[in-house]
Design goal:
It contains eleven helices and two strands. By secondary structure, it is an all-alpha fold.
């Protein structure tokens, strides 16, 4: 009985700690991006918004509420992973020499590729009429995304998203540095794709256009928020192009206003 109490107490401590970390991360990165680009930088960036509608506080509040709810489950996932690591049943490790320095980079890229594929197929399934209203509606409720939308998920979607990381630590040896790097990449990428404007418009001569063709940015994802039936990827445009869900007009769309048509 004492042992069970200790396990539950430790699990509760992990959950509380990670819930706090996830919330702070969300407000620092998503909130910080919104504050910087929409307030500090102000009109120069707001005028470049990809959608015509002004930002509505009600939508932001709804996004924050869903993000906090999602953080509750993401914290549970993190607590489970740490508890499993303490029990020695995951493939997480702490010594770089165990697999070599080169493996840090290889495993990082591998997880991004696997996560992108996982996200594409579940995201596409979320948009099926049978699932959309109770799995994914919350993320699209605001219509026009802002950084606050980046982690605004209905609880069932948060569960499915979080289970990826619960599963991956049992399938691939990952250093904690790699896992943290993937989580930070995912967070920053989600905020960038929900900025509401293109950070590096096509006319920026120093921004290679092949990046826009193969990596998902704000314009690519903003089209998804308007058209629903295209652009389901997370990081890369590969699956959309391969499986016919890539908007054929995407390359010709200027980084300005996006409509439903």
């Amino acid at each position: 009985m004492q042992n069970l109490f200790f396990i539950l107490h430790k699990f509760g401590f992990y959950w509380l700690a990670f819930f706090g970390i996830i919330i702070v991360r969300y407000f620092l990165i998503a909130g910080g991006a919104y504050w910087f680009f929409y307030s500090v930088m102000g009109k120069p960036f707001v005028k470049r918004r990809l959608h015509l509608k002004p930002v509505v506080w009600k939508s932001i509040r709804q996004d924050i509420e869903l993000s906090v709810l999602s953080a509750v489950f993401f914290g549970l996932c993190a607590a489970f992973i740490m508890s499993a690591y303490d029990s020695g049943v995951t493939l997480l490790y702490t010594s770089v020499s165990e697999y070599g320095l080169w493996y840090l980079g290889v495993s990082f890229v591998a997880v991004l590729i696997i996560q992108d594929a996982y996200f594409y197929f579940i995201h596409r399934a979320f948009h099926h009429p049978l699932f959309f209203k109770w799995l994914h509606y919350g993320h699209h409720r605001s219509g026009d995304p802002t950084p606050w939308t980046s982690f605004a998920f209905d609880l069932p979607e948060a569960v499915i998203q979080g289970l990826f990381f619960v599963g991956i630590v049992f399938l691939i040896p990952l250093h904690f540095i790699t896992l943290i790097a993937v989580l930070m990449t995912m967070t920053v990428w989600a905020v960038l794709t929900h900025l509401g404007f293109e950070l590096f418009p096509s006319q920026f001569w120093f921004f290679p256009q092949w990046l826009r063709r193969w990596f998902i940015g704000s314009t690519h994802h903003a089209i998804h928020h308007r058209k629903y039936r295209v652009h389901y990827g997370l990081y890369f445009t590969f699956w959309d192009k391969l499986l016919g869900t890539h908007d054929p007009n995407y390359e010709g769309i200027p980084n300005q206003k996006i409509t439903n048509h």
